[in-house]
């Protein structure tokens, strides 16, 4: 760091010669720079081919060496005082703005960065330092592809590091709106007159400036028109805008470093500094404005399947993976998702003040002002694309503050349970209706949205969609004796959904119904009884998995175990009870409504034999996600077939029973039913070519129904293992565990 100057100083001391006068050398180099503008007539010679870079390097070395010499005394050296009092940084900033000679801005940025980084004395508090810093920032970051992007990002790195060390500096750097607007030519004239006029042996406090040579330079040098600022102009606060501009750079390293710098800025620990950042700078609006611009640049014709399939996008690697198939709009989608991931990361890491403000800005500008009208639009393509984009955003979302805003946006702030006759007033109500849309594509896309939402660690999601309707257990019959046998719980003869023709069709469960369900000491239905109930539900003539070499139920148990462990760890902080509250037998029965979400799912499930295969898969996937939640009311209502339902109530099991009844009637009308059903299963597994068959939708629905019952049995098993935590089971025979 001492360079040749330090070596010369050591030699001078060793030879007992008079030491070099540091200030004299410093002023000499500065005069060499100013004299260039007086003597040079070639306006095309690049700055790097002049002696300006060398002289700036010598000035930096002198400042660093002087500081080390003055360290013991703890005083500011005369060279640094000269730099400050003679506004050298102001003058350099003006020369950089004039970009004369060509490339001068690059040299100025490098000098500023090195001085601020290598000089340990606090500088940014001085007006003659932070004011030119503000002006220099305003020169860059606004034009993509600037030739000085590398130097600009290095400059902002130094500034953000200094602010991280001393948050009080934030107000100095961001005071751009308070800077005095003056014509650049006046600033250059005044500054250079003061700097270039000092004689060879001037000291900071000694002689008055000589205006001769500087006046000649001022009169002979014409700054470009673009450097002129009108009197009274108000500059924008520009560290933020410079960083945002650099984040848009096509150069990956520059963009990444700029994002890291902005992240450093929003994570300062000072409450006062972050409050200033939120209230007195364009930080949050600028970040969110870029996010909205990227969203609005997406093609309206994006395929929801392409949106869902694009994975691996992060703010550190915002470009789409090259090994994935290309599709129209892929790069634009990757850019948007990369910046959304960056916003989410900023909200996660930032100080609480910045985090809350940025999350609210994203919710207001992107969710409410842009997404909501698209989700409620009459155009099916608009609804489909916006729903798919919102789903992938939820999938990427990690920050608690932004999740809180997303939940409030989707589910609303009103937590009162909806009534059956309520018309859709909230966005959530409209989205639930979209799950039962005439367009199967919209239904599937919206069901995926809810499935993604159910995997987020926010208790209000489950409470608003399901639990608020189950609290108090209004679905359980009051004051009636417990059924003596499993057959009593079905009570098919009194069920208005079943007719004599169904009972005459010969419907019987695939195995003899078990006797009265066994219970554990805590009064819960034994898990083996629940598992067998679901496994026995589909009649033997409608099962096909036994004819194929599949792991079957055991595979579902393995998968369900992993999903249940993940779900349990997510909900542990919510403090859910282990058992449902006891019922008061004397309490009058309350009207029960399962809520619009479960109502929609049950309605969809009741039509499983009539719906497309892909739609059935999505409906059962959402129901499985719900069944995994370790809440006693959810388990009782969705997974316990022996729950004594109140009159007029339905549960998941009762809906499945009715579907089985419909199945048994339809089987009679399908010739060669077993063979066709087995063929369809093989087609779905890819074992045979897919050819169109009669009753194909119905047959595919039967396959999904069988698999769904096995999945529910596996979920019930892993939630309440019979004796041992080990989940190894032998393959069930005759429909039993």
Automatic annotation (TrEMBL):
Residues 196-208 have a biased composition (Basic and acidic residues). Residues 196-218 are annotated as: Disordered. Residues 594-686 form the FHF complex subunit HOOK-interacting protein C-terminal domain. SUPFAM superfamilies: ARM repeat. InterPro entries: ARM-type_fold (IPR016024), FHIP (IPR019384), FHIP_C (IPR045669), FHIP_KELAA_motif (IPR045668). Belongs to the FHIP family. This is FHF complex subunit HOOK interacting protein 2B. It comes from Capra hircus (Goat). The gene is FHIP2B.
